[in-house]
Each structure stands twice: as structure tokens, then as C-alpha cells.
Amino acid sequence: MNRPAVGGRLAAAQALRQVLDRGQSLDEALQLPLSKLEHGPDRALARRLSYAVLRDWPAVQALSSALMDRPPARRDRLAIFVLAVALAELREGREPERAIVHSAVEVARSGGLSRLAGMINAVLRRYLRERSAFESRLADNETIRFGYPGWLIEALRADWPDDWSAILEAGNQAPPLWLRVNRRHWSREQALQALRAAGHEAQLPDLPLPDALLLPTRVRISDLPGWSEGGLSVQDGAAQLTVDYLQLEDGLRVLDACSAPGGKAAHMLERAALDLTAIDVDAERLERVGETLQRLGLAARCLQGDASRPQDWWDGRPFDRILVDAPCSATGVIRRHPDIRWLRKASDLPELVERQAEMLRALWPLLAPGGILVYATCSILADENERQARAFLESCEHCEVIEHAELPGRARSAGRQILPGENDLDGFFHLAVRRLPV
Ligand SMILES: C[S@@+](CC[C@H](N)C(=O)[O-])C[C@H]1O[C@@H](n2cnc3c(N)ncnc32)[C@H](O)[C@@H]1O
């Protein structure tokens, strides 16, 4: 096993420790360890193994506890994650077993855990000797079988009695790469041909998504033809549907109330010449909206502000369209962000639901008669979606739901829901409401 493979595995173990012990997001946790790796394949390995462990965490955690005589001292916690990476790899079965064990020992040494290298070796060898006995003890436990916390399994079972296990399994599959073509720059056909000419197996999705292309495998985005000229962006097909709910036309005055990092703001501006105000409560994240728009040659009025306190930033002129792409549990995008299942807690939900409701209440009066408000989340929980939508509709006067049966998703008692993996899409919810003239 060569050195880069050790580097990738060590980087994965270090990042996993940050996520699972310290609550950092995987993207943030990977930044430092990845920056120390020179080789692309090594960085890809670090990412792949981090994802594999997060999807398999209850099983590898249960196995390591059963296999070790006692847990390592606090200062040696990294050893848990070195073992987790090796156990996840052994369970995956993609590499020869001896190479995985040898590599784990090397990873421990390069991670400053030389004194635990013998223990790691012994634990992994014991697993290989007694594998079937250890694995059979795991078989009945749902948390271990699916790789999700119990509270989330219960919530999904309650909301989706016929679909919950398919949802959990979809969250463990690698998603395709969805691209959005900037049709101000070139046509989708031109983008498709350029990608194919560069050797990518780009496909047209079989869905009403006029700006979307699909790539079946991960690639380095910045190497794609047209990327540096602003011809392409990465955005899941489900998120791309949002502009269709908004029914945009040139000249409209639009509010994007939760705009960072600017994916949907950019899509709106690619579709129509709009007077767009982009708000976000987080000043640092708002800077990313400016960067996103600049890369694509687009512009909006970017304001830092709290969407539930328009009195602090609104100039008093009504909007023709309002997008509330609300902060949510992100339970619809777990296949892209497997850390979410461990970082989100059941106790986060009531506060999220209240924040979403406050935004809807505060923003509705800013909509012009005849205007459309779209509420969107990347959640699959009814409290944030269907129930939130119903509560909002009960409280708002002079409004009418726009159904959009022509768009992908399942009609709910209010709004439309896409479940993760359906049509290769992320889990997403949309509700479009028109304000009726009085
Ligand atoms: C789902 S993300 C938005 C994604 C964005 N629309 C896009 O397509 O790139 C939710 C955003 O809401 C912001 N946010 C959270 N609470 C907010 C509030 N009270 N007012 C405005 N923005 C808020 C977060 O900072 C985060 O950037």
C-alpha cells in the first residue's frame, strides 16, 4: 500500500473525529486534512471513506466497542476513527483485507498513534477471524442496518409509512452530479456537446427540467468545459424546479429571502431579467451570493438581514415574487451530506419549524396582489413541509395555492414533495401561493 493511500485514510479519520466528536460539518472538517494532501486520488479516497463511515457509523461503532477490550484514552480518540475507516472498508470489501489492515497500522503510525498500532492490528485481525459471529449480532438492529439515528427512523416511519425504508436506503446511495446550464451563456445542447466532446457521459434528464444535465459520476467541476466562463453550475434537479414554481418574467421585482450561497438567486437571474433583492441573515454566507453571481456574470441587491424582521431592511415597495428557501433539517439531502444524520438532533426541529413559520408570517405582507410566494425546503419531514404549509394557508387571507401537477413530486394536502432518490433527485418540498387581489 503506497503512502498516498495512507494519507487519504488518515485525512478521513481526522475529519470524522471533527464531525462525530466535535459536531463540525464534514465539508468544514475535511478542509484542513485535504489541504495537506498533494494527490487528487488521495483526496478522493479521503472523501469516499469519510462518506462510507458516516453511512455505516452505528455498525462500525458497535463492532469497535465489541472488539476492543477497553476504549482508547481520550487523547488517543483518533484511534477509534482509524479503526472505523478500516472496519468500514472491510465491510465494503473493495480492497484486499490484508492491505486494509496493513494500511490501518500505517495510518495509526503516521497519525502519532504508534503505541496503538499493535492494538489496531489485533482488533482488525480478530474481526476477520470472527467476522460472522460479530456481524450476526448486528443484524436485528434497525439503526445499525440502515445507518441512521433512531429518532430519524421513527420520524420518517411516522411521516412516510410506505416509503420510510426506501428513503433510508436512498440516503445511503451516491447521488449523480446535476448540472445547471446557464442559458444566457449557451444552449443546453451546446453544453451537452461540449461535455461529451471532453469525454464526459453527460445525459439529458427525462424530466421537465429545461436547464439541467446529469453526469453519472463525480468529476472535478473546475475542469468541466464552460465552467470558468460561467456556463455551468452544480445544482440538484429538485432545487432547479424552484424557478418553475416562481413563474418568472422579465422586469419582476423579486425577493430571495434566504439566499446564501446564491444557487437559486443565480438560477432566477439566468432565467429572466429581474430586479432581485437577495437577503441572508449570515453576513459571511451572503458574501458567497455575491461570488456566485459574479462568476456567472449576474447581479442582485444583496442585503444582510433577518427575513422575519423586514422592518429592518424593506424599502416598503411590494415584491412580485418571494422565495422563502428556508433553513431546515436538510433531511432530503442526506445522500449528499451523510454527516447531517448525526449532526441534526430531534430537539432542533421545533425551533426550525418556528423560524420557518415566523418568516412566512413576516414576508407574506410584502407580496404584491397577484404576486407569488414560494416556500421551499430540502427537508422530507412533514412538520417542516406539509404541516407547515397547511398552518400557513390557514392563517393567510386572500391566497390561492398553485398546484403544479406538471412538475415532479407527490401532491400533499398542501404543496408537493419529492422523496430522495425519486427520479434521481434530492428530497425537496415546494409550495406556491398566489396573493389574490382584494
Ligand atoms: C437552505 S439555505 C438557502 C439556500 C439558497 N437559497 C440557495 O439556493 O443557494 C437557507 C439560508 O437561510 C439563511 N437564514 C437562516 N435564517 C435566516 C433568517 N432569519 N433570515 C434570513 N436568512 C436566514 C441561512 O443563513 C442559509 O443561508
TrEMBL record:
<dbReference type="Pfam" id="PF01189">
    <property type="entry name" value="Methyltr_RsmB-F"/>
</dbReference>
<keyword id="KW-0963">Cytoplasm</keyword>
<dbReference type="InterPro" id="IPR035926">
    <property type="entry name" value="NusB-like_sf"/>
</dbReference>
<keyword id="KW-0808">Transferase</keyword>
<feature type="binding site">
    <location>
        <position position="325"/>
    </location>
    <ligand>
        <name>S-adenosyl-L-methionine</name>
    </ligand>
</feature>
<comment type="similarity">
    <text>Belongs to the class I-like SAM-binding methyltransferase superfamily. RsmB/NOP family.</text>
</comment>
<dbReference type="GO" id="GO:0006355">
    <property type="term" value="P:regulation of DNA-templated transcription"/>
</dbReference>
<dbReference type="GO" id="GO:0005829">
    <property type="term" value="C:cytosol"/>
</dbReference>
<keyword id="KW-0949">S-adenosyl-L-methionine</keyword>
<feature type="binding site">
    <location>
        <begin position="258"/>
        <end position="264"/>
    </location>
    <ligand>
        <name>S-adenosyl-L-methionine</name>
    </ligand>
</feature>
<feature type="active site" description="Nucleophile">
    <location>
        <position position="378"/>
    </location>
</feature>
<dbReference type="GO" id="GO:0009383">
    <property type="term" value="F:rRNA (cytosine-C5-)-methyltransferase activity"/>
</dbReference>
<dbReference type="InterPro" id="IPR029063">
    <property type="entry name" value="SAM-dependent_MTases_sf"/>
</dbReference>
<dbReference type="InterPro" id="IPR049560">
    <property type="entry name" value="MeTrfase_RsmB-F_NOP2_cat"/>
</dbReference>
<dbReference type="Pfam" id="PF01029">
    <property type="entry name" value="NusB"/>
</dbReference>
<feature type="binding site">
    <location>
        <position position="306"/>
    </location>
    <ligand>
        <name>S-adenosyl-L-methionine</name>
    </ligand>
</feature>
<dbReference type="GO" id="GO:0003723">
    <property type="term" value="F:RNA binding"/>
</dbReference>
<dbReference type="InterPro" id="IPR023267">
    <property type="entry name" value="RCMT"/>
</dbReference>
<dbReference type="InterPro" id="IPR004573">
    <property type="entry name" value="rRNA_ssu_MeTfrase_B"/>
</dbReference>
<keyword id="KW-0698">rRNA processing</keyword>
<keyword id="KW-0489">Methyltransferase</keyword>
<comment type="function">
    <text>Specifically methylates the cytosine at position 967 (m5C967) of 16S rRNA.</text>
</comment>
<feature type="binding site">
    <location>
        <position position="280"/>
    </location>
    <ligand>
        <name>S-adenosyl-L-methionine</name>
    </ligand>
</feature>
<dbReference type="GO" id="GO:0070475">
    <property type="term" value="P:rRNA base methylation"/>
</dbReference>
<dbReference type="Pfam" id="PF22458">
    <property type="entry name" value="RsmF-B_ferredox"/>
</dbReference>
<dbReference type="InterPro" id="IPR006027">
    <property type="entry name" value="NusB_RsmB_TIM44"/>
</dbReference>
<dbReference type="InterPro" id="IPR018314">
    <property type="entry name" value="RsmB/NOL1/NOP2-like_CS"/>
</dbReference>
<protein>
    <recommendedName>
        <fullName>16S rRNA (cytosine(967)-C(5))-methyltransferase</fullName>
        <ecNumber>2.1.1.176</ecNumber>
    </recommendedName>
</protein>
<keyword id="KW-0694">RNA-binding</keyword>
<dbReference type="InterPro" id="IPR001678">
    <property type="entry name" value="MeTrfase_RsmB-F_NOP2_dom"/>
</dbReference>
<dbReference type="InterPro" id="IPR054728">
    <property type="entry name" value="RsmB-like_ferredoxin"/>
</dbReference>
